[in-house]
Amino acid sequence: MAWKTLDEMDLNGKRVLTRVDINVPMEEGRVTDSTRIDRILPTIRDIQAKGGTPILLAHFGRPKGQIVPEMSLRHVVPALSHALGQDVTFIDGNYGQSVEALPSGAVALLENTRFNPGEEKNDRGFAERLASLGDVYVNDAFSAAHRAHSSTEALARLLPACAGRLMEAELSHLEAALGQPKRPVVAVVGGAKVSTKLDLLGNLVSKVDHLVIGGGMANTFMAAEGLKIGTSLAEHEMTGTASEIKSKAEAAGCQIHLPRDIVVAREFKAGAASETLPADACPEDAMILDAGPETVKAIAGVFEACQTLIWNGPLGAFEIPPFNMATNAAAKHAAALTKSGRLISVAGGGDTVAALNDADAADAFTYISTAGGAFLEWMEGKTLPGVAALEG
Ligand code: AMP
């Protein structure tokens, strides 16, 4: 790992500018889910234990360089103070209040970085202003690392910098899943469309041994093979691309697994009458909404033959039962293998976390990344500017 951790930094008596993600859901000025706040507590506590004063900086919403009072981080202070068990000092956008006056043991929070028009432009001037408030920079916001902003990129180059505990956990698990994985590796890629996951598929076929394709995007791959898919969601203009991905996979020694049987319905709604058919038997007036039990059995066999699993996207229209069957069954199988120590399982992306929670499988996975965009870009093999800046 080319980046440093808190363990390697001297923080004693230092003001530690700590980039966090506390873009928490709020209703009527109150935080409704404090998961993101809870996840940064170990970093704050470790900085304090090393004698440093954490000065948190974060964005909230999309104020686009304007001061939008509803998007002030001031509203997050009560929930943050409650989670930490100590008062948090709020420093408004002028940073007029001297950070030097912060007593030892204090925790401070700066106003929404996106109130400054320089933030999203990765403006060096704004980064220098932030840098003047601290001695050391810690980035604990993996979920914001795919953006080159002043508080995630430029600032890291102006001060001694390291990863916080959450960033460290995220990077080491991702490295274990795709950087230096235990082989064989299987990737599950599902979801609605091929077109939104082209870079992802292109990168994965050269890195993994097995690629399970599910959900709406499998329909496009099946159409590319000449199978009839009725009225299913598909991108017929992408069938050429699907064939190219298949050839690239073959050349790289990656085996692609498509549905062997399908669950079809005439309507896209919960409880719609459905039937399970072989993959080549979709009626003209029906749509494929899930994979069938034979497919689940095959996927389970692939999981059993592998040591590492990386998962993004559901295998069917999981929000409308019974079309969550394949996703749930495969997720449960992965969870059981993980529990028995036979599989390292890493999953991420908004819908994926929801689907694994729906299957009651998320807790057993080795690691669940809640970083949507950053997780996908990382799976696509892209360099994340916020991580690259830590590497110096
Ligand atoms: P994505 O955001 O690309 O991960 O796609 C997730 C969405 O794909 C979910 O809302 C699923 O309901 C939807 N989806 C998965 N499989 C199908 C399918 N066979 N037909 C229609 N929608 C699907």
Description of the molecule:
This protein is an alpha/beta fold. Helices cover 33% and strands 18% of the residues. The strands form four sheets. Strands 5-6-4-1-7-8 form a six-stranded parallel beta sheet, with helices on both faces. A six-stranded parallel beta sheet has the order 11-10-9-15-16-17, sandwiched between helices. The radius of gyration is 23 Å and the shape is elongated. The structure holds adenosine monophosphate.
List of distinct ligands in this structure:
adenosine monophosphate
Q: Which structural class matches the secondary elements? A: alpha/beta
Order of helices and strands: EEEHEHEEHEEHEHEHHEEEEHEHEHEHH
Individual helix count: 12
In percent, how much strand structure appears in the residues? 15-25%
Termini distance? 12 Å
Silhouette: elongated
Rg measurement, Å = 23 Å
Quantity of strands, as a count: 17
Sheet with most strands:
6 strands, parallel
Q: Main sheet: which strands, in order across?
A: 5-6-4-1-7-8
Mean pLDDT across the residues is 95
What proportion of the residues is helical, as a percent range?
25-40%
